[in-house]
Queue: 4 jobs
Job 1
Amino acid sequence: MNQIMSWICLLSICFLCLQVMIFICENTFKLFNKVTFNNKNNNKKLATASVTYNYKNKIAK
């Protein structure tokens, strides 16, 4: 009887650990997807002038 109780406790602890790991991994994936989605939106470059006007060359001419 003692061995049966030990096996039941072992199985219940294993099941509990599995549930906790699934919960942690699920939250981690949600957080990771949120961070990568935000990084994709932040990687868009702002419009900037590609050529700057050089006043020194204009004055020298």
Note: The mean pLDDT is 76.
Job 2
Amino acid sequence: MLGDLSPILVFAFVGGAMHDGGFSLLDVLRNVGLLCAGWVAAAVLFRPYAHPGVLRLGATWAVGISVGVLLRAAALGRTVDGEYLGFWAVALTLTLIVLVAWRWIARVFMTSLDATTSS
């Protein structure tokens, strides 16, 4: 599960570094905490680690990131308007890309480790 939270870290740090207001570690930590809370809540609901599968992981990602984005909106007192929907779309897109990359790297590493161990 910890590896699956890496997309949230990447998203928060990239987002924090790209905005005109400058990089604020407190803002990044707030965003990480809220998005991770959404992910963990979705993981409890969909149980992708107890019953692995692409559909459960996908549901955890989609619902978890969405809940985290909505928690962030509430924490910042933002309305979910067109601009915030853009933020939501970027959050979903970037976290999906990093999640797929992370899962692929982990699978390649575990496969090579298995091959090395069984030799």
Note: The chain has one domain: 3-118.
Job 3
Amino acid sequence: MATVSFDKNIVIKEPEAVEKLVEALSSKDVKPVNKKFASAEAMAKGEEVLKRCLSLSKNS
């Protein structure tokens, strides 16, 4: 599957959201990947959903 890199500005207006983002980015906690969500079956299902969403948006 091809990937595209792009730059996009993100605007965060709420101070609480800024605090949460800074906390998440500076956290040293490592959380394991849930294998159920990263399985080949789950990835294929996600790709199909994405294809459907993108095909609908092209027709708009």
Note: Helices lie at 15-26, 40-58.
Job 4
Amino acid sequence: MAEQKQTTNSKPAHASSPNLKQKEGIYQAEYFGSGTFHIVKPKRKDGKRRQSALKGTTRGARK
């Protein structure tokens, strides 16, 4: 019978890489009460905005 590899780590291989580190304090959320939040996140980079505009469809075109 074929042997099965058993890993003790439940994370995928790319998630347990020591080279990948997330910056602290990029995303912030503040709760004001009654379902109201103030969320701070980084802006999209210019290159991503440009590609989204070039490859994206015109708003409402598929309706």
Note: The longest strand covers residues 28-33.
